[in-house]
Design goal:
The chain is an all-alpha fold. About 75% of the residues lie in helices and about 0% in strands. The chain is built from 22 helices and no strands. Helix 4 packs antiparallel against helix 7 and helix 12 runs parallel beside helix 19. The relative contact order is 0.14.
């Protein structure tokens, strides 16, 4: 690279916000829309599946999924996501972002539809096929994490890059709301068409045969928005940074970005020779010395955050009963239960989860990633301790609304905090040739934390009680605050400046220039 930044990369860095930025956000964000939609809907689906396939004659309460089946249905998608993040993250650096990008979306679409078509009439076959397709759905979703983040960071200008990457992640908020609205509409329509008595009045009649269509329609609908963006995903050119810095084809990068930016850019001559000093790999001492602590920072903070974030399932039932939104299951029929839970979860998301995402989008390039992450972990720590230490106080009927407010604030600051920044930062601070891989490793670490949070802490709450569990989660958030100090600030800098690629190039140029001077001096006149 020339001493100054390549013209094509500089043009991207200083470009004004244009229409292509917004189309890139929507195209890249549809994977996260599907991700959130699927995770949101499965909690509604599992309730209904329990009533349909695990009903016991003469039981006093509706059927529920056995704990091992429930863990499998929920956990298998996490396992698929973790695997997909590692695999597609690595593949995105080897084959290019664009070539891999279509695969992940197609996999999500096919497996979303297939999940709804899970076949068989007995519980085992339905659950087995559902788990199989949910694993591969998770695998596709996992690939979308590193690829979407990397593509958006490499397309964005340096002034608003953080907001654009955070906006891709914030599409999860729309996925949550869409999931809730689809569940409300479908369940209300079936409820009106096929009225049924409550479980107390008629246990068998409370779950109409047509209920089996409801969960399938809800699951399959999530594939539709992702499918609509497939064409545009295939039309996106490869990112200029991959083409120029990894594939070493500056001419092609310049031609691609001339079309995207709608300006005339001149291709520059690029040195094509390999430089081992510059092209160090992931498992080298050079990477360890330059980026080892950065990778430790991104993996540890994402891991610790997701333990706390996904353990919120512990308290969901307390929230709903506190507000009085969810009556006891036996006082409702199957479709009424789906409707009530969808309505309650949508309102919780609307009041706390979604606003947090967009606060981050609005302020990340003003406040900075480091401060937002530190602030988020700090307030999550404070609210977890405030919920945990006087836990008995919050269980009293008069104080339960306060519990709801504190709970909502905890997850507002998760989203206006580390839940967004842990996604943004790994897409900015690593070299182009390792960017997707390192983001995939960081995201996989987060998903490992999600598995611990969703399952380990559910069992912990049964064993040591909710109070002690909340206090432990407070300490976990405090650790997240400490590990944030390993993560550098990337606000307002070019990707090459943050990753150190610009310094390496300049050092190589200086060395080669000095060598030329020495050669001239050594020539006898």
């Amino acid at each position: 690279m020339a001493k100054d930044q390549l013209q094509v990369l500089n043009a991207l860095d200083v470009a004004k916000t244009q229409w292509y930025h917004f189309t890139a956000i929507v195209i890249a964000g549809m994977g996260f829309f599907t991700d959130a939609y699927d995770l949101f809907c499965i909690s509604l689906v599992t309730k209904l599946l329990g009533r349909i396939y695990y009903h016991k004659e003469g039981a006093a309460t509706p059927g529920t999924l056995p704990s091992n089946v429930s863990a499998a249905v929920n956990g298998v998608a996490f396992c698929g996501t973790l695997t997909g993040q590692l695999f597609f993250g690595w593949l995105g650096d080897k084959m290019g972002r664009k070539r891999v990008y279509g695969m992940t979306l197609l996999l999500m679409v096919i497996c979303s539809v297939a999940s709804g078509l899970s076949f068989g009439s007995d519980p085992k076959s339905v659950m087995a096929t559902l788990c199989f397709f949910r694993f591969w759905l998770g695998f596709g979703i996992g690939g979308d994490y590193p690829l979407s983040a990397t593509i958006m960071s490499e397309y964005a200008n340096k002034k608003t890059r953080g907001a654009f990457i955070a906006a891709v992640f914030a599409m999860q908020g729309f996925g949550i709301l869409a999931g809730g609205m689809v569940a409300i509409i479908v369940s209300a329509a079936f409820k009106a068409k096929y009225p049924a008595p409550t479980f107390e009045v008629d246990a068998n009649g409370s779950t109409v045969p047509e209920s089996d269509y409801v969960w399938r329609i809800i699951l399959m609908f999530g594939a539709l928005p992702a499918l609509l963006t497939y064409y545009w995903r295939m039309k996106m050119p490869e990112t200029a940074r991959y083409t120029a810095l990894v594939a070493k084809n500056v001419k092609q990068a310049t031609a691609d970005m001339s079309k995207v930016l709608q300006v005339d850019l001149e291709a520059e001559q690029e040195q094509q020779e390999e430089n081992k000093e510059r092209d160090f790999g992931l498992f080298t001492s050079k990477f360890l010395s330059r980026h080892g602590l950065h990778l430790l920072g991104t993996t540890s903070t994402w891991f610790l955050l997701d333990i706390a974030f996904y353990s919120q399932n512990l308290f969901q039932k307390d929230i709903f009963s506190a507000i009085g939104w969810i009556p006891k299951a036996k006082t409702m029929n199957a479709l009424e239960e789906v409707y009530r839970i969808a309505r309650a979860q949508t309102l919780i998301a609307l009041c706390s989860t979604v606003p947090g995402y967009w606060f981050t989008v609005a302020l990340i390039d003003k406040i900075g990633r480091f401060k937002i992450q530190l602030m988020g972990f700090f307030f999550m720590t404070v609210f977890m301790f405030a919920l945990g230490i006087p836990y008995h106080h919050w269980t009293l009927p008069d104080n339960r609304i306060g519990f709801v407010v504190m709970y909502s604030l905890t997850f507002f600051f998760a989203n206006f905090g580390p839940n967004a920044t842990t996604f943004v930062v790994p897409a900015e601070i690593f070299p182009a040739r390792l960017r997707s891989t390192c983001h995939g490793i960081s995201a996989a670490s987060g998903k490992a934390g999600a598995i611990v949070g969703a399952f380990g802490f559910l069992y912990a709450a049964d064993g040591i009680g909710v109070k002690k569990t909340l206090i432990i989660l407070g300490f976990i958030n405090f650790l997240g605050m400490l590990f944030t100090f390993f993560v550098p600030e990337s606000k307002g800098k070019s990707l090459e400046e943050i990753s150190g690629e610009a310094e390496q190039e300049n050092a190589i140029e200086t060395e080669s220039g000095q060598q030329s001077i020495d050669d001239i001096k050594s020539v006898k006149v």
